[in-house]
Amino acid sequence: MAGTGVGKFSSTAGSNTANMTVNFAENMAPSNVNNAARELMGHIRDMYEQIGDGYFEFGDGDGTYTVARSDADTITITSSSDISSVYFAGRKIRITDGGANVVEGTIASSSHSSTTQTVNLTGISLASGTPTKVELGIDTAAFGGRVILDDDGDTYIEAPTDDTIDIYVAGAKDFVITANTFTAESGSTIAAQALTATSITSTGNIIIPDAGNIGSASDTDSIAIASDGVVTFSQAPVFPDGSIAVADLDIDGATDIGEAIVDADLFIIDNGAGGTNRKVAASRLKTYAGGSLAGIDDQSSSNDDQVTITDTAVVINEDSDDLDFRVESNGNANMLFVSGGNDVVGIGAEGDLGIGLHIKESDSGSSSVDAHANQLVIEHGTSGEGCGISFLAATDGFVRLAFGDSGDDNIGQILYNNTGDILQFFAGANHVMKLTSSTVIVNEDSDDVDFRIESNNYVNMLYLDGGTDRIGIGNNSSAPGSTLDVRDAQNNVILDLRNTITSGNIYGQQIVFGYAPDDNTNHFFSCADSAANRMFIMSDGDLRNHDNSYGSTSDERIKQDIRDSNSQWDDIKAVKVRNFKKKDDVRQYADKAWEQIGVIAQELEDAGMDKLIKESDPTPADILSDASFGTLWTKDDSETQDAVLYTADSQEVIDGDKNVGDIKTPSTKQIGDVKEVKQKVKGVSYSVLYMKAIKALQEAQTRIETLETKVAALEG
Predict the structure, then answer these.
(1) pLDDT tens by residue, 281-297
(2) What is the CA radius of gyration of the chain?
(3) Is 676 exposed, middle or buried (0-12, 13-18, 19+ CB in 10 A)?
């Protein structure tokens, strides 16, 4: 098979030296010039004839090509180069298949591997056998997406976006075509002798010629419109009940209902028995039905004004009598029901429950409704089914349920945003809670909003204070006093977790326990597994593990440069072991304060063992022991006096949730916390000191053994 041959030409002029049978080579013989020109003209003519119907035979771009059928919607083309940019997805393609059928479709995808171009098709089913021709549709994108229809280029068809076609005539866009829609632009009109369409929608006027008709296939002039605008119907028009509204109606050319009715005027009023000519009074019109007057009244009586029509209103039951209003459906006698005596509006029900609106699908069996809920009652009594209210909006819209009062029509909200599927709750100006498919967020806007969970006995079983950034557990009578404040039933502190300093870098956390045991056998803090306690802090401050050692990782495999320690004899001889009592223990327990054994940090420093000394910020107990360490917040400081308390007027006190005098908003500072650090507290690295002692003990043992040997020799 042969393509146009033009595909093997290069857009780079200097590269076109070896792509024809007779080549335009440098210094070519004059006798070859005319042959090369004729061959080039043949290729151009071949392409011209092919693209006349919108297709051309590109092949593999080399003049000849080989094509094969892989399956009903796949072909392969033998090609040494990647021609996917020509056989691109979305391009029209026409194939003469192995059954000599010409089929048209679109390229779904195209790929090149080695010497094979694979083209996947859509909208095509190829017959078995080897295709004899493959043709490609014209790529309009190469011309800016336009198909130009005239010489000066101002009449054309263009696809500016996907699935949109614009039609321009003389430079003006007249029509736009999208899927299933043909739109005439402003200023453009559609003129045709015959137009067939399922429906025609216009945002403007539809104009037909003077004396034109509108009709159906069997009655072409059912509606005739004269040149003066008079409309004539070929058949008697039929209108739905209640659909005619006119300012003036002329009856037989004699009586204009827009005029006053005189006593001589007659109206035909059907009584259900064939009709009766009945004279009515000059200023009254009543409906005659079943032999009695009931319907429209002019308010001349005090108790029969069922329907009153004025210039500004249509009123049913003007006199406020015990008059019901009822609309029946096919299956329900009370599809819409207004009870004049009970002040109830019912949908599907007579309004026998509640005061307000009662919507009834089926009888639930209930004979009464809660007094706080009876403004709207929705009832459904079918077993296994329930009631519901749906709020529907666009996929990028939202639905809102708002609550208000006389001062604020939007004081509370429940809002569901369809974009992102987010349910939000607002109270006043605060965004209180947000729910998504994966998260529950309380107080996302970081307002001063508290979060509180009550238990059976505690109103503050879990309490997050939004204003102070504190969490309390069991704080039944007070707000949290620290970052984490845990209390027992008597409001005693169980755990008090707070920052060790109030400014600058935070070096750690302080854990304060509410009790101070007077022995050294209880645990302040324990870490345990299923077998036993593995590490614990004793009530006297000692740190132990399960075998009463200070154990640490000491594997040989994590150490290097291992050697025998130098002598610690002199250091250990210089250590002064002291007995002492801590001032804080004395303040709490007087003469029962514990007597402890240990060393003094300053004495170790004087002995040259300053590397064993460590420093830390003082605790309140340290400062109470010696004011040189710093100062504490006291009751005389204003920062500790600005707590806001609940009063008798507080709504929480009225509701019974709080007591007068309870803390509503705590002080910014707490009495007894560290106010200022003047000096660091010195500590000792006992683990290093212990190792020194062990080494010195080993040295002592060696000396003892040496002496024992000498003594034995002297004695012998």
Answers:
(1) 433 444 433 333 344 55
(2) 50
(3) exposed
Give one word for 672, left, alpha or beta, with left for phi > 0 and alpha for psi -120 to 50: left
pLDDT of 706 higher than 80 = yes
Say yes or no to pLDDT of 712 above 70: yes
Which string of DSSP letters, residue by residue, matches 180-248? TEEEEPTT-----S----S----SS-----TTEEE--SS-TTSEEE-TT--EEESS-----TT----S-
CATH fold, domain 566-631+674-716, is Arc Repressor Mutant, subunit A (1.10.10)
Nearest Cα to Cα of residue 568 among 690, 708, 707, 687? 690
Q: Which of 395, 459, 421, 386 is nearest to 656 (CA)?
A: 459
Look at phi and psi of residue 708 and say left if phi exceeds 0, alpha if psi is from -120 to 50, else beta. Answer: alpha
Q: How far apart are CA 337 and CA 188, in angstroms?
A: 52
Q: What is the pLDDT of residues 381-421, one digit of tens each?
A: 888 888 888 889 999 999 988 888 888 888 889 999 998 89
Q: What is the mean pLDDT of the chain?
A: 78
8 Å CB contact between 622 and 678:
no
On whether the CB atoms of residues 166 and 158 are closer than 8 A, the answer is: yes
The answer for residues whose C-beta is within 8 angstroms of residue 353's C-beta and 6 or more apart is: 366, 367, 368, 369, 374, 377, 379
Give first-to-last CA distance, the chain, whole Å.
124
pLDDT in tens, 53-110: 678 888 887 778 899 999 999 999 998 888 888 888 888 899 999 999 999 998 999 9
Q: Label residue 706 left, alpha or beta by phi (over 0 means left) and psi (-120 to 50 means alpha).
A: alpha
User: What region, left, alpha or beta, does residue 284 occupy, with left being phi > 0 and alpha being psi -120 to 50 degrees?
Assistant: beta
Mode of pairing for the β-strands spanning 613-616 and 596-598: unpaired
CA distances from 357 to 191, 372, 373 (A): 55, 13, 11
Q: Which one-letter amino acid corresponds to residue 171?
A: G
Quote the DSSP letter at residue 154. Answer: -
Q: How far apart are CA 167 and CA 171, in angstroms?
A: 10
Question: How far from chain centre, in Å, is Cα 422?
Answer: 5
Could you tell me where the beta strands, DSSP code E, fall in 436-576?
Answer: 440-442, 451-453, 462-465, 470-473, 484-487, 493-499, 509-512, 523-528, 533-538, 543-545
Residue 39 in contact with residue 21, Cβ under 8 Å? yes
Every domain of the chain and the residues it spans: 6-138, 146-184, 209-235, 325-379, 566-631+674-716, 638-668
Confidence bin at 211 (pLDDT 50/70/90): confident
**Which residues on adjacent β-strands are paired with residue 292?**
289
CA 661 to each of CA 459, 478, 485, 666: distance values in angstroms, whole numbers, following the listed order: 16, 10, 20, 12
Q: How many Å apart are CA 168 and CA 154, to the nearest integer?
A: 7
